[in-house]
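Researcher: Next sequence.
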Amino acid sequence: MTDCGCDKARQELEEYLRQEMCTTDREAIKEHLATCEDCSGEAHVNQVITQVVRRSCNEEVAPEELRARVLSSLRGGATA
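Model: Next structure:
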């Protein structure tokens, strides 16, 4: 399989990381990332950002005081 090139790899990087592409395109990008330090570095940064966002979104419930203030604000009430 031939190298897909940096432009294609960067353009389709998010779909690649989310595994939202066909096997042929996925393999071409995987091969490119294995041989291109710049693109593999960019892929790594994107993976780390995705993991951090996922972790930060896994909070179960906002603290009760914060929830009350937000709800009050949404309802048009004053906050202290």
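Model: The CA atoms of residues 21 and 73 lie 42 Å apart. The mean pLDDT is 84.
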